[in-house]
Amino acid sequence: MTESVRQSADASPEQRMTEWDGDHAASTVDVDEELPGIDPGELDDEDLIRELHSLHRTRLDTLRHASDSALATHLRRTAELETEYLARNPGREVDPSRLRDA
Q1: Burial of 1 (C-beta count, 10 Å sphere; 0-12/13-18/19+)
Q2: Distances from the Cα of 37 to the Cα of 32, 47, 53, angstroms
Q3: Looking only at Cα atoms, what is the longest distance across the chain?
Q4: Which of residues 82 and 11 earns the better pLDDT score?
Q5: Helices (H), 1-102
Q6: Counting beta carbons within 10 angstroms of the beta carbon of residue 75, is it exposed (0 to 12), middle (13 to 18) or buried (19 or more)?
Q7: pTM of the predicted structure, to 2 decimals
């Protein structure tokens, strides 16, 4: 990605983020440095849902107004928590009204 794409007002937030690798925000933290937040695997179900609510509640504001590094952290944490939720709930209830016809 070129520097001009990162600076362009027409570029998406992902294109403007230096940490973005095309699929997800790459960690710019040293492997020995502790990442913010409790390991999702250590959260009980209630705390996991509370953390997910908090992230989703702040999503638009973070996307629109946070620094690139804050957005990268938000994306990483969201992915961690959602991955943990899906691992714990592989047969989660799917609302039929949310399905599209094939």
Answers
A1: middle
A2: 15, 12, 15
A3: 47
A4: 82
A5: 3-7, 13-16, 45-65, 68-88
A6: buried
A7: 0.64
